[in-house]
């Protein structure tokens, strides 16, 4: 008869070694839940958007926020599935702080008046496109993409 007790240290060692193996790191794609830099907005140049540091913050959905160069803008987003590559958004009224900043008010007014119309989104890697019913688009790039 074979004495299996002699093999016990070997099996113990192999068991411990296997338990110490690192599990593969799984990083969830953030989807919409990020801060987005506005790269295209109808009627504004990329330079103007960059100078205003135009941002759309969807990191705390269903609460959203934006910055268009002066005031903090806040809104609610409903009926959104943030991990889908495309879908629809239901954006609530936009509220803002009340500072006056010459040179930035046009962009903020455009955002406040027209942002709710953009009810469809498409994600492609680190790029986000918002579209309204007339085909107008806002293009954004993830702030953390690099």
Please describe what this structure looks like.
- With 146 residues, the protein is of the alpha+beta class.
- It has one domain (35-142): Lipocalin (Beta Barrel), CATH 2.40.128.270.
- 19% of the residues lie in helices and 32% in strands.
- The longest helix is centred in the first third of the chain and has 12 residues, at 8-19.
- The radius of gyration is 24 Å and the shape is elongated.
The CATH C-level class name: Mainly Beta
CATH topology: Lipocalin
Helical content band: 10-25%
Mean pLDDT: 86
How many helical elements?
A: 3
How far is the N terminus from the C terminus?
A: 64 Å
Q: How much is the radius of gyration in Å?
A: 24 Å
Number of strands: 10
In short:
It comes from Neisseria shayeganii. With 146 residues, the chain is of the alpha+beta class.
Q: Layout of SSEs?
A:
Elements: H1 8-19, E1 35-40, H2 46-51, E2 55-60, E3 63-67, E4 72-78, E5 86-88, E6 90-91, E7 95-96, H3 105-114, E8 120-124, E9 127-131, E10 137-142
Antiparallel strand pairs: 1-2, 1-10, 2-3, 3-4, 4-6, 4-7, 5-8, 8-9, 9-10
Protein name: META domain-containing protein
Signal peptide: 1-21
Keywords: Signal
């Amino acid at each position: 008869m074979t004495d299996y007790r002699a093999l016990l240290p070997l099996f113990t060692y192999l068991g411990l070694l296997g338990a110490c193996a690192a599990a593969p790191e799984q990083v969830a794609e953030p989807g919409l839940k990020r801060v987005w830099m506005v790269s295209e907005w109808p009627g504004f140049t990329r330079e103007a958007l960059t100078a205003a540091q135009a941002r759309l913050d969807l990191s705390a959905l269903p609460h959203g926020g934006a910055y268009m160069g002066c005031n903090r803008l806040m809104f609610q987003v409903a009926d959104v599935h943030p991990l889908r590559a495309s879908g629809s958004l239901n954006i609530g009224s936009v509220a803002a702080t009340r500072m006056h900043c010459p040179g930035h008010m046009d962009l903020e007014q455009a955002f406040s008046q027209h942002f709710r119309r953009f009810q469809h989104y498409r994600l492609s890697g680190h790029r986000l496109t918002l579209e309204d019913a007339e085909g107008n688009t806002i293009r954004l790039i993830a702030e953390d993409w690099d």
